[in-house]
Amino acid sequence: RIEFAFTPREELGPQGLESGQILIETNTGEGLKPLVKVASGGELSRILLALKSVLAEADDVYVGVFDEVDTGVGGAVADIVGSKLAQLAQHRQVIAITHLAQIASQATHHLNVSKTTHEGRTRTSVTTLTAEERIDEVARMLGGVEITDKTRAHAAELLAR
Predict the structure, then answer these.
(1) Over the stretch 107-145, which tens digit does the pLDDT of each residue have?
(2) N or C: which end of the chain has fewer CB within 10 A?
(3) Does the model's pTM come out above 0.85?
């Protein structure tokens, strides 16, 4: 449950006549609490995802960037988050930075970001993965360093859905 609370200011200032805060109840029966006090970074991303999903038709923002929207989730919840991102991507450009196969497998395009050190400096490179490279990357997310035929088959299954 989410509510927006506005409190009148004593006088008009650069921030207007009211101060506002978002109140949220993340668990039934816990009551509304200020978002800034109860939400982690991952929860903030998921709350933004929920708001963006609801407002997608009226929102003029064309690109949404979700950095680690998968923090603190796994399994079925990660699958739902990936599905919500895919639904939002039907109306907007969505960029999701994720470490979970359930989310990455639902993307239309998959980019790999890697860092290397060259002559004492860190360099970041971004490459678009081919279909075969995508299977390997999702398999790596599922199984770690060693990619087996079973892990690769599971990755291919996720991507085919």
Answers:
(1) 999 999 999 999 999 999 999 999 999 999 999 999 988
(2) C
(3) no
